[in-house]
Amino acid sequence: MTPLSRNGIAARVALDIQDGWHVNLGIGMPEMVANYLPEGREILLHSENGILGMGPSPAEEDVDWTLINAGKKPVTALPGASYFDHAWSFGIIRGRHLELCVLGGYQVAPNGDLANWARDANDPLPAIGGAMDLAAGAQRIFVMMTHNDKSGAPKLLESCSFPLTGAGIVKKVYTDLCVIDVADNRFTVTDMVEGLTREELQNRTGAPLHFADQVAVLKDPA
Amino acid sequence: MIDKRADDLARAFEGLGDGISVMIGGFGDAGRPAYLLKALLDSGIKDLHFISNNAGDGDTGLGAFYHAGRVRKLSCSFPRGSVAPLMEKLIRAGEFELEVMPQGTLAERIRAAGAGIPAFFTPTSYGTLIAEGKETRDFDGRGHVLETALHADVALIHAEQADRFGNLTFRHLARNFSPLMASAAKRTIVEADHVVELGDIDAHNVHSPAIFTDLVYQCHDVPEDSWHDWRASA
C-alpha cells in the first residue's frame, strides 16, 4: 500500500473544484491545490489579504513583496483580478460568497467539527489568522490533511479534543489514504488508495467508518 | 489651506506619551510602515499597545520593540514569526499581554471603530474558545458573537502615493488593514513612497480619502543596522 503524496492529495482535491467557483486555499498544504486546477475550468482564487484572481508564483526577477498570498509568499494577479481592503475581503468570506475553502486540519469529527489552530487550550501563542472566518463563512469546507499525525495517532476522531476552529462545518476530508464525505453525523469513505483493506483503514481512524456503494481508487498523478 | 505634509518626525508623536495604542498597517511586510516605526522607536514612547495583524519578525521593525521592552500589549490574529519565543518569554514573565482574535474580527472591529459602530454580531468563532464569556445571539437559526469596536490613539500607514490633503493609494496588496486603521485612529500618520500634487491621484482611484489622514511624510529607507540602537539602550 502506498499512501498518496502531498501532491497527490492536492490533485484529488482539485478534481472536486467546479468551473466558476471562487475558492480560498488555506496556508500550508492547501496552497498546493492551485497547481492542479483542472484544465478547462475557470476558478478564481481568493486570498484573505485582499485579492480575487490570484495567480501562480512569479519568476524571481518579477517578485514584488506587496503582492503576496496569506502565507506571505510572492504571487501574481491574473488578468481580471481585483484588489480590496481587509474589511471587504472578510466580507467576501463571512458573506458566504466563496463556494469553497480548503483548510488544513489537526482533527475532524463526524459532526463536521474542525480543529486546526491550537493543539492546547492553554497555548500561550495561539495563531488563528483567517481560519475561523473561513470556517464560518465559506459555503463549503474541505479539509486536506495526513490521515494520522507524526506519532501515528488518528486525526479523524469521534470528537475533537483540541480547541475548535468551527463547529459542524466540514463537508469533505482528503487524506493520504482516502476521501471521506462528512454528513449525517458520519464519515463515509468514497475513495481509497490501492492495497489498503477497509479494516486497516478503520484501524488507523478514531471514529467508525462507513463505505459508499462504489469506492473509487486513489492514485498519485502520473 | 490644508497641508498635511510634514518633515520633522518629532511632530508625529507630539503631545503623546507612554501607554498609547498604535495601529500598524500591513500584512506581513506588505504595507508595513518601517520609516514611521523607526520614528516611534526613536521617540522613546513605551508601554505601547500595538494593534497589528502580525507580530513581527526578527529584531527590526516591529520586532525591535519587543527586544527593547517597549510593548505592553499586542492585539493581533497571527502571533507567529521569529519573535514568538521572545513574546512567550515576556508573557511568562508577566511583562506582556497578548490578545489574539480571528483576522476578520480584527478587521471588522477596526472598521467599526472608524464607522461609528460600537459593536456588531459575527458568526465567526461561535462555538469556539474565542467566544467564551462573550454575549451571543441567534439570527436566522445561527449563533453569533458580539464583538466591540477597536479604537486607537495613532495609526501608522505606508502608502504608495499621498497628496497634501492626505488622499492615499496603496500598491497591490499593501492596502490590507491600512484604510480601516486610517479611519479608526485619533491621529493617522502616513509615510508615502511618493508625495504628489493635488490631482495627481485621480478621484476615481483614491483608496483612502483625505479626511482620515493627519500627517504625511516622504518615506525613506531605514538602514538595517539602525534598528539595533535598542541594544545600546537596553
Tell me about this structure.
The complex is a heterodimer of chains A (222) and B (234). Chain A is of the alpha/beta class. Chain A is built from four helices and twelve strands. In chain A, the strands form two sheets. A ten-stranded mixed β-sheet of chain A has the order 4-3-2-1-5-8-9-10-11-12. A two-stranded antiparallel ribbon of chain A has the order 6-7. In chain A, α2 crosses α3 (131-137). Chain B is α/β, with parallel strands linked by helices. Chain B has a domain at 21-100 and 151-221: Glutaconate Coenzyme A-transferase, CATH 3.40.1080. Chain B contains six helices and eleven strands. In chain B, the strands form two sheets. In chain B, strands 1, 2, 3, 4, 8, 9, 10 and 11 form an eight-stranded mixed β-sheet that branches.
Structural class of chain A: alpha/beta
**CATH topological fold name of chain A:** Glutaconate Coenzyme A-transferase
Order of secondary-structure elements of chain B: EHEHEHEHEEEEEHEEH
Helix content of chain B: 10-25%
Instruction: Give the CATH class of chain A.
Output: Alpha Beta
Mean pLDDT of chain A equals 96
Looking at CATH, the homologous superfamily of the domain at 21-100 and 151-221 in chain B is Glutaconate Coenzyme A-transferase
Summarize the amount of helix of chain A as a percent range: 10-25%
Fourth CATH level, the homologous superfamily of chain A: Glutaconate Coenzyme A-transferase
Sheet with the most strands, sense and barrel status of chain A: 10 strands, mixed
CATH class of the domain at 21-100 and 151-221 in chain B: Alpha Beta
Strand content of chain B: 25-35%
Q: What is the subunit organization of this protein?
A: heterodimer
